[in-house]
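Regression test attached.
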Amino acid sequence: MNSNLHQQRIMDILWRRFVIVAPYLWLFIFFLAPFAIIFKISFADPIVAQPPFTPLFNFSVQADKWFYFTLDNYRFLLEDNLYWISYLKSFKIAFISTCLCLLIGYPMAYAIARASPVWRNVLLFLIILPFWTSFLLRVYAWMGILSTHGVINNLLISIGFIDQPLKLLYTDFAVYVGIVYSYLPFMILPLFANLVKLDFDLNEAAADLGATPLVIFRDITLPLSMPGIIAGSLLVFIPALGEFVIPALLGGLDTLMIGRTLYDEFFSNRDWPLSSAVATVLLLILVLPMMIFQHHQINETDYQE
Amino acid sequence: MVEETSDQSTEKPAWQDPAAKPFIQIENVSKDFNGFIAVNKVSLDIYQGELFSILGASGCGKTTLLRILAGFERPTTGRILIDGMDMTNIPPYERPINMMFQSYAVFPHMTVEKNVAYGLKKEGIAKEQIQTRVAEMLELVQMTEFAKRKPHQLSGGQLQRVALARALVKKPKVLLLDEPLAALDKKLREHTQFELMNIQDQIGVTFVVVTHDQDEAMILSSRIVVMHKGELIQCGTPKEIYEYPINRYVADFFGTINLFEGNVSRVDDKTMEVECKEISTTVKALSSDTTRVNDQLTIAVRPEKISISKEAPEGEDLSILKGIVWDLGYYGKLSIYKVRTETGKVIQVSAQNRIRSAERVLEWDEEVYLSWDIQSSVVLTE
Ligand SMILES: Nc1ncnc2c1ncn2[C@@H]1O[C@H](COP(=O)(O)OP(=O)(O)O)[C@@H](O)[C@H]1O
Ligand SMILES: [Mg+2]
C-alpha cells in the first residue's frame, strides 16, 4: 500500500510536469522547429537539385567549404520592388479589412451581448454556422456571386439598374468582400466575449451622473471593450496579412498580396531560399503587432484583477 | 400616539406637520414586468432632510422602486414628483437625484479622483472648481490619500466611499442608496453606518436607503417603510414600527415577539379583554372603535415589555400568567428567559440585569409570574 502511494505520487509529479511542458512542446514541434528550418533555408543559395538549395553545413569531401551562408536573399528582397509592393499592398488590404470587420462586427457583437439569453445563443450559433462548410467552398461561392454572369450582376441587370455587367470578380473589391466575410466571426467572437462581461450597472451609473447614451458609449463601453477590440483586430489582421486563397481566387492580377508572391516564388520559381526569406520577413512583421497585444494584455490585467 | 424621544428636537417632524410639503411624492406607482407585479400601487411621501429607509425581504421590489425614483425604470402606472415637479418621464441624466448602486459600479478604468470628478465634468463645470469640489468630497469620505488609485487596488469599504463621494459631489437634492452596506463585513458595516449618518447630517441631503437589514434600518432612519411582495405594509418611525407593528409580518420582521391568538371577551370604550386559549389567560389590551365582542385577533408582546418575578404581581391593568423557567441565558447587561406555561407555550422574556449574575435569583425550572402592562399588548387584527 505504501509503495502504491509512492507510485501515485510519482505519477502525479510526472503528470504535473507534462502539463507544464505540453504547451512548450506543442510550440516547439509545430512552430519553432519549422520556423528554424525556414530560417535556415533563407540563408542558402538556390540550386537545381533535391532539395533545391545549398546546405548550411557540408562535411562531404568534395565540398570546398564546410559552412556556407549568404545574405543574398534578403538583399534581393530589399532591391526588388515587387516584394515591397506586395508587403505594402497586403498591409493595406489587411488593415482596411480589419477596420471594416470592426465597423460591422462591433454593433453585431454589442447587439448579441445585450440580447436575451435565448436570442444570444441563436445569434451566436448563426455566427458560427458558416464554419460548418469548407472555407474553400465558401470562397468559390463568392466567385459565383461576383462573376460577370453571377447573382449580383444578373439581379442588377434584371431590375434595369445597369445595362452592362460590372466587373466585380478579380478586383481588390472582391478580395475585401472575401476577407471581411471570412474573418468577421473572428472579430465578433472576442468582442462578444468582452462586451457580455461588461457590468451594465456602469452604464446606468454614468447615466445617473449626467451622461447621455452616446457619451456613455464613448466614456465607458468603448474604453472597457478595448481588450476585445484588440484581440478581434489581431485575429483578423494577422491571417488576413498572409492570406493566400482569397487573393488567388477572387483577386485580380494586380492584387499582389504577399501570400501569393510567396506561393509563386515557392512553386513556380522553385526558389526556396528567397521564399523562405519572404516568409521570415513576414513573420517579423506579424510578431510586432503580437508583442503590442501582449504588452496591452499585461496592462489590462492591471485593472481587471 | 407616539411620544417624542428626548433627543429629538421639540419641533414636530415634517411628516407630522400637515402644512409641510413633501419633497418626494410617489403617487400610486406600480411596475409590471411582463405580468409579474414587482411594485404594487405604492404611494409614499418623503420629506426634505429625511433619512428614509425602504425595508423588506430580498425580492420584495425595493430595488425596483428605487430604480423608478432614479429613472432607470418607468412605472407602469402612477407618477413621481420631486419638489413638486413631475419626473415620471424625465431621463436619469436630467433628474436632480443621484444613486449609489448596490454593486457600487465604480468605473474600473478611472482613478478614484476621475471617478468622483466624472459627474461634474458631464455638467461642464470649470476645471479648477471640479478639482476643489473633488478634493473636498474625498476629504469628507476620508479617501484623499487614495485619490490616484485605481478601483482594483481598493477594499470593499473604500469602493463604497468612492461610490458615495461620486454621487454626493453632484450636490443632488436626493441620494438613493441601494443596500449601501450589504457588501461590507459586520464590523465595517457598523462603523460605516454611523459615518453615513454623520455625512447625511453634515450636508443635509435627503437620503432614501434600501435595506433588508432591520437593525440597520432601525439605527439609521428617521422613518422606515416596510415592503412585502411589492406592497407597502407599514410606514413610520423606527419606534412606531417596533412598538406598534400593524400585522404579524411586520412584528416578526423586527426582532422577537410573542404572539397570542384569542377572542375578545369584553369591550368597553377604552379597554378590552382577550381570551387567549393557548396560554389560558385573559389578556388586557386597549380597544379601538371597531372592536366587537368575539372578534378574533392576535396579541403581540415584545420580550422586553414582559416583567418576570417570583411573587405574583398586582395591578389593575396587568395581564398575568404563570409558568416555569424553561431556559435562560445571560448576555452581558441582558438576560433572556424562555418561560413555559402550563399549556406548553414558550414565551420569551428579556430583562435588564440589575444584579450581578452570581447573585441571580431565578433558576431553571423555577415557578415564575409573567406580567405586562395594558399598553404593551399590541393588537394585530390580520
Ligand atoms: N428587469 C426585470 N425584469 C423582470 N423581473 C424583474 C426585473 N427586475 C426585477 N425583477 C423582479 O422583481 C422582483 C423584485 O426585484 P427587486 O426590486 O430587485 O427586489 P429587491 O431589491 O427587494 O431584492 C424580483 O422578483 C425580480 O426577479
Ligand atoms: Mg435589491
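Expected vs. actual: identical. The first strand of chain B starts at residue 24 and ends at 33.
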